[in-house]
Amino acid sequence: MIKNISFIVPAKDEYENLKKLIPYLIKFSENKNCLYQIIVVQGVDTDIDTNLLCKKYNLEIINRKHETFKDALLLGIEKSEYETLVTLDADLSHNISDLQNGLEIFNKEDCDLVLFSRHMHDSSFKERYINFIVSKITNYFLRVISKIKINDYTNNFRIYKKSLFKHVEFNSTHFEVLFEIIYRFNRLNDNLKIVEIPTIHQKREFGKSKKRHFYYLFKMMNLLIKLNRE
Prior knowledge:
The chain has 230 residues and is of the alpha/beta class. The chain is 41% helix and 18% strand.
């Protein structure tokens, strides 16, 4: 049974969503009777409401100096205390009810990484159709190029062993780091155990997405070129 969990939540202008997400995570952890740590890593422009919200729940908040998703994610992981890491977005798109099953599999099968996949047979993708198409095509090509047999390389809803990140350097600058993490872990660990399970990917409740499809695809192509030259 997992006794300790660090939740890493990159966020930028997500106060309304965090007002609902944080109580969900606290309730989930307390129901499991485990020690937990919730780290909110927010954008460069300090959100006073989010700071006050985290103070209310006595949570750790990091006001980062750099803008990118990669910096937020890796900084949160660096500051985490526990070996079991759960990463997720702040926009309520990730279904917390799927987390129980993921943690049970992570523990029972001694996984290094559990991926909550939006592109398996039993998955559900409730965002705009254009987002689904872009995600589906991107992940198809990443599977062909990387030859790593999973379906979703770009969803941030994951469970990791923190020790995997020790001494690993990443070339990414933004959201493409989600693919690079899998790619590098697969190269560096011959016995890496990844389990992929279906999830319900919800539509965000408040605010606007920070992803820009063409910029994101450009950054992904740039990363693939760099990895091919290594």
